[in-house]
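Handoff note, outgoing to incoming analyst
You'll be picking up this chain. Sequence as last confirmed:
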Amino acid sequence: MRFGLSEDQKMLGDMLNKYLESNLDLEAIRKFAGNSDHHSSAIWNVLIEQGALGILVPEEYGGSGLSMLHAEVVSEVLGKHIVPVSYLGHAVLAPLAIQHAGSDQQREKLLPEIAAGEVIYGVALTDVVMNRENTQLTINNGKVTGDSTFLIGGQVANKLILATAGTLILVEANAPGVTVETLSTVDKTRDFAVVRLKDAPCEVLGEEGAANDAIETVLNAARINIAADTLGAAEAMFNQAVEYARVREQFDRPIGSFQSIKHILAELITELEPCRSLIWYAAHAYDEVPEEATMMACHAKAHSSEVAKNINRATTEMHGGMGFTDLLGLHFWFKRIEVNRQLLGGPEVTRHYAAVAQGWAPEKMTAA
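Most recent structure output, in case you need it:
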């Protein structure tokens, strides 16, 4: 059995990678990081043109109806170039939430606009991963009150999908009673936000309280694509360290010729490459082996986070004092990896969910 990317998956990744190599350099990343709006309209339009926003939208709703592995390929490339767009929330989480929780009428109305990129969706799932004090949403007669933390998509989103207590709801970002506040994180290449709601009009996707399975499915997709984004960023850090080792000289020879540097780089790549297979299999299991989907998605996110953290540290140190400066810009990848590590649960949380999925732990974790 041959396990790897298909030709169309390779082509999808190569096309996007070539465009980003030519159109998103370090100075452009610095510009977006310094703006209040961390969103590239130009790159967003390219994703629309390449059909990337409709990968997980069925063909009957204007999408491509492709696999989770196709979405993983895009996420990996976006992480490699730390692209300032909210692909995860709009193109992965939102369409899956609508497909698995929404009614036929909601699918017909909402999915085509996702594939076409006519609006931008933001998604907040953190409050069902770790129950936090004062974040429970209350739904009453078509209106919702409460706070939803860590909206993926931030202030660029026009429509918001929020999760609470077995229910997924849709809220217009500009509706009365909706306040979207920017949530500051160390990663300035993406937008996150807190949504505050007071008697805001909302639309329940499907039936209230009936979306537990849909939420778990969406969370698995999130874990896989966050892991892919982390893999891309970690690979970029490694490649930059290899290039630096070739050109940086000490004692009239490149530091890459020193045995100690060779050993470090060899150890890093042997840790990194198995992550790729793990994430690929998690994406495969999502579509083809549903009984393993939660376990593999959790392990993919947890393990890639741990490996990437080690690569973060080692490659930054390899650059010496320059590695910690803004001049080289390594901190952009460093911070992307660190935020991904904690997004929707750090390694200890996701491993606990994997244990729950296998029947080894009786309860889900709650925040203190």
